[in-house]
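Hi support team,

I'm opening this ticket because the web form for multi-chain structure prediction keeps timing out on my end. I have pasted the exact lines I submitted so you can reproduce it. The total is 398 residues across four entries, so I didn't expect it to be a heavy job. Is there a limit I'm missing, or should I split the entries? Thanks in advance, R.K.
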Amino acid sequence: MARPRTFDEERALDAAMRAFWANGYEATSTQDLCEATGLGRSSIYNTFTSKHDLFRRALARYIDVMSVPQAEILEDAERPGLERIRALFARIVDTEFDYREDDERSIGCLTVNTVVELARRDPEAAALVERDLDFRLGLLRVALEAGRRDGTVTTGRDPDTLARFINATIGGMRVSAQAGAGRAVLESIADTALDALRP
Amino acid sequence: MARPRTFDEERALDAAMRAFWANGYEATSTQDLCEATGLGRSSIYNTFTSKHDLFRRALARYIDVMSVPQAEILEDAERPGLERIRALFARIVDTEFDYREDDERSIGCLTVNTVVELARRDPEAAALVERDLDFRLGLLRVALEAGRRDGTVTTGRDPDTLARFINATIGGMRVSAQAGAGRAVLESIADTALDALRP
DNA sequence: GAAGTATTGGATAGGCCAGTACAAAATATG
DNA sequence: CATATTTTGTACTGGCCTATCCAATACTTC
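Hello R.K., no limit was hit. The queue was backed up. Here is the completed structure from your submission:
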């Protein structure tokens, strides 16, 4: 019925996500977004209405994309509970090194970056992140409860507290990675955190 | 010999620090800095040369101000090693609640915020933060080694690894606070982390 | 092939950005 | 009190920012 798009909306969204992820919301201009996606301004505004809306969608996509494999790991009934947490840590470390610009520093995690840069003044972003937090805490509790049942998690602390702790550890690893920590350091942080699950 | 200043440079720097801390570097305009400090543009540029330079000084001041009490805690020979770490955690929690805007969300830690927002593209800021990281890791090692000697830290992991872990935990607590965690949650994260020191 | 419709590129708008220019004001020194 | 010197307020600059406008384009349907 009319002229069709010459670009793939999801690819564009991915490119925008990468730009926000690597540079932050404020430091990414609409011009940057045009260059990152390869689209013109018109196409961007026609498709995504505003920079803020594009960010919202990019963040939502990031959360969706990242949570699938994490859920798979944490709900993997084949593995003991503690091993699921260990595998999650390993995945976190891998992503910190897989997704990188030319730079030697990690670009971190868009969710963490958003919490730090935007959560206080952007209620929509805060809501997305909070929803994701609840979801991930739930997944962690599942794995921790499994660990308690199968004897790999022996601490007396309740799964809720432990889930918060594991989640905080992941945040700390991501900040450490952005501060320049290498693979060995991240792995040792993860290993040490696991000690708290079987004291 | 000439007209004297009508403002206190340190007070102005403090106000600017608070502004950057609460809102981030990019989202804080020079206009915001004028309002926060109560100074006119001329006074700001006359005293601090540029927004970036003002930020650099604000960050340096933040690091200085924060590290003094933390060093005191971690080097306090009266306390066993583990208790020093515990006291440090308690202080982190307190600061997350002491320094707050009207908001119900924490403004976090300027160092962490800087790592996340700026470290990748601002080498000066990155250098300040890295220097501070080395300093704090050193303090943590001191306390952890003391803990090993006095028997309160019983884990077999080496102090360097443990220092990284404790530091990451603090980062994770700060991100959690910015994501909306309350006092009880932060305290439980800290308590759980301590479990890793005496497995 | 004509009509209708959505996309696209380029120009543009209005505002805010960091930073500067300059003159008026204020004070220490002589 | 005069002079030298610094601070301060105001106005301004050039540029980049997000967002819009509009005409040209390209495609689908009839």
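A quick check on our side: The mean pLDDT of chain A is 97. Let us know if the file doesn't open in your viewer.
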